[in-house]
Specification:
By secondary structure, the chain is of the alpha+beta class. Helix content is about 25%, strand content about 30%.
Length: about 170
């Protein structure tokens, strides 16, 4: 079940806006309740020769894979704007859930397309919170508020998934 069925981007320039101003959050998230979530935003500029059908197929496979995992809340596949920019994001119950999904086969396959399909991209990691039924608030995810690295021998279990923490450097730009 989609937690944000009414979510819509606001204007053709949505991909250049801060995440909090790019969507109709007040209307769309009214039933989300109070809590804290982890949002991973993918801002990109597509290459002029990007194979849209291939990109869509890999994206859909990664989306379906993620939607079946524990902690998945919502995926927004942004449309390509007139300037070839795009903003897509995935909302999770926690950073741990998002990282588990990023290690899955379909997501890893989709990542292999980055150099082929995009002129540029950035990843943004946001903490999304709501308290006392108020508006959603968005802030950059601050690693200082959570353990930066679990113990090297720590195991994490998410449903049937048993994970070893993996830390990889960000891709070079």
């Amino acid at each position: 079940m989609d937690a944000l069925p009414l979510l819509r981007h606001l204007g053709d320039d949505y991909a250049s806006r801060p995440i909090a101003a790019a969507f109709n959050w007040d209307e769309a998230a009214s039933d989300l309740g109070d809590g804290e979530w982890y949002l991973v935003a993918f801002r990109s500029i597509r290459r002029a020769d990007a194979d849209e059908a291939r990109l869509d197929a890999f994206d859909e496979a990664a989306h379906q894979e993620a939607a079946a995992l524990p902690g998945f809340v919502h995926y927004y596949k942004g449309p390509k704007a007139s300037d070839d920019s795009c903003l897509s994001f995935c909302l999770w119950d926690s950073r741990l859930h998002a990282r588990a999904a990023a290690a899955q086969p379909a997501h890893r396959a989709a990542v292999t397309l980055i150099a082929e399909m995009y002129d540029s991209y950035t990843l943004e990691f946001n903490r999304v919170t709501r308290t006392d039924g108020g508006p959603l608030t968005f802030a950059p995810y601050d690693a200082a508020e959570v353990p930066a690295r679990p113990a090297a021998d720590a195991d994490v279990t998410l449903g049937d998934l048993k994970l070893q923490p993996t830390f990889r450097p960000a891709p070079a730009s």
